[in-house]
Structure formats: C-alpha cells, structure tokens
Write a structure and sequence with these properties.
Layout: E1 4-7, H1 13-41, E2 48-49, H2 64-73, E3 84-85, H3 86-93, E4 109-114, H4 122-131, E5 136-141, H5 155-170
Parallel strand pairs: 1-4, 4-5
Antiparallel strand pairs: 2-3
Length: 172
C-alpha cells in the first residue's frame, strides 16, 4: 500500500449506529443481538435482518436516504437482496477503523467526508482525522453520504479529489 483514500468512511460502526438510532434506540437492539447470539450458540442460524427499510421500520441503515439509494440501486443490481444477518450486524459493530487511523502514516491519507452524512457523522470523521499522522488531507463536501457515489451531486468532486491525491502521491 502506497496511498490511502477513504470516501465517507465507516470509521466507527457503533458510533454510526448510535448516530442513526440514538443511544436509546441502539440499546433496544442489544437484547435482539444477544438473543441471536444465544440461538447461534445452540446451533441455529442467525436471524435475517433488512439492510434498509421504509422510515420507521427496523433496519441496519435506518435513514431515508439509505433506503432511497439502495432501492434506486436495484435497477442496476436486480439480484441484490435487502437482507443481512444479525450476526453480521454484531460483527460489523466490532469494526472501529478509527482506532487504528494513526497507524496509516507515513502513507498519504485522504479522507473525503460528507458534512451532512446521515450514516457517518462529520464529528466522528473530524475526530479520527485529527489523530491521523501526516501527510493527510480532509476534504469536506457539503452533501449527504450517497451524494459522493456515481450519479450523486458530488461524485465528480469526490472522484476528482481522489484522482488528484493518487496522481500526486503515486507519481513520486
């Protein structure tokens, strides 16, 4: 690895889940995850769980923009299943890349963040970025999480920043 670009990165999945559902909402999922763990220990499969759902229904990414983006994506990914398992949710909650961000240096690190991100709070990004070593750059785009993906209003900005970063740091 010579250079790193992280676009709207999931730096702290628990922090993200708390930001989406609130602390009380997150706490209400814990007994469900514990029950699923007990079932798996008894030899049963993990229960399915939707990735996205209409507003007010439980899902992993319980934000309106997540639902809209994933449902629109079915036009070019018709075989995508809106389902994961509770075990996968539990395993994802263990993911906390922010804990290791200081280990990226001295590799050049670009983080492209969405200021109005409903999934990755900008405060989490700024905090993690502050702990990263040099060389580093934070690009904050005034948009939502999915706006940086193809077809989004800020895709060209995000892709341009990544292109410039790669060109600068891989041309050496």
């Amino acid at each position: 690895m010579k250079v790193v670009v992280a676009q709207v990165p999931g730096l702290d999945v628990v922090g993200t889940l708390i930001a989406i559902a609130g602390r009380e909402g997150f706490d209400s999922y814990l007994p469900v995850l514990v029950e699923d763990h007990a079932r798996r220990n008894a030899g049963e499969p993990s229960a399915p769980f939707p990735v996205v759902a209409p507003d007010g229904e439980p899902s992993v990414l319980a934000t309106p923009d997540s639902f809209d983006w994933f449902m629109a994506s079915t036009s070019y990914a018709p075989n995508w299943l809106n389902q994961t398992t509770l075990e996968s949710v539990t395993r994802a909650a263990e993911y906390k890349a922010a804990s290791f961000i200081d280990l990226v240096a001295p590799k050049p690190l670009l983080v492209v963040a969405a200021v109005n991100d409903s999934l990755v709070p900008i405060e989490l990004v700024r905090d993690a970025f502050g702990r990263a070593g040099e060389p580093k750059k934070l690009v904050e785009l005034n948009c939502g999480h999915f706006d940086v993906y193809p077809g989004g209003t800020h895709h060209e900005d995000a892709a341009g920043a990544a292109h410039e970063w790669f060109t600068t740091h891989l041309s050496v």
